[in-house]
Write a structure and sequence with these properties.
Strand order of the largest sheet: 7-6-5-1-8
Structural class: alpha+beta
CATH architecture: Roll
Helix content: 10-25%
Strand content: 35-45%
Number of strands: 8
Number of helices: 2
CATH topology: SH3 type barrels
Number of domains: 1
Length: 139
């Protein structure tokens, strides 16, 4: 009886591990891997994106909605001009790696990835998003 219980427990644990991978827990961002132009990815207000101040929540008709910030003119970490809902499909147009400097310490961050994306929102948006704010799969 003890062996049957151990086997059932093992099977349940394996199903949980596989299920977590299928349900999007193992998301890769545009900061972790390079997304190709013409590929579809998803906006992602994850922990790293939020810590960088590149996403957050807004109140839309009494409901809190998670959004990712976009600069329609150039790669930027501030003065954004648009936003796109979290987990929204976007198309990669271009990848640009830049050196970004921390405002307080002056510390450089080299090869900081920004992606120019296009989104079929209303109206459509074309702009730049921090690579940490894009994911390889829908969640």
């Amino acid at each position: 009886m003890k062996q049957i219980t151990q086997w059932i427990l093992l099977i349940v644990m394996l199903l949980l591990v596989v299920g977590c991978g299928v349900l999007g827990v193992n998301v890769k961002t545009g900061a972790e891997q390079e997304f190709r132009p013409d590929g579809q990815v998803f906006t992602y207000c994850g922990t790293v994106c939020a810590a960088k101040g590149q996403c957050g929540t807004i109140n839309r008709d009494g409901t809190q909605v998670s959004v990712v910030l976009v600069n329609q003119n150039e790669p930027a970490t501030e003065e954004h001009s648009a936003l796109i809902e979290d987990n929204f499909p976007v198309n990669v147009v271009e990848l640009r790696r830049l050196t970004v400097y921390n405002k307080q310490s002056g510390e450089p961050f080299e090869n900081y990835p920004f992606y120019r994306i296009s989104a079929e929102t209303a109206p459509p948006i074309v702009g730049w998003i921090d690579g940490a704010c894009l994911a390889d799969k829908e969640r």
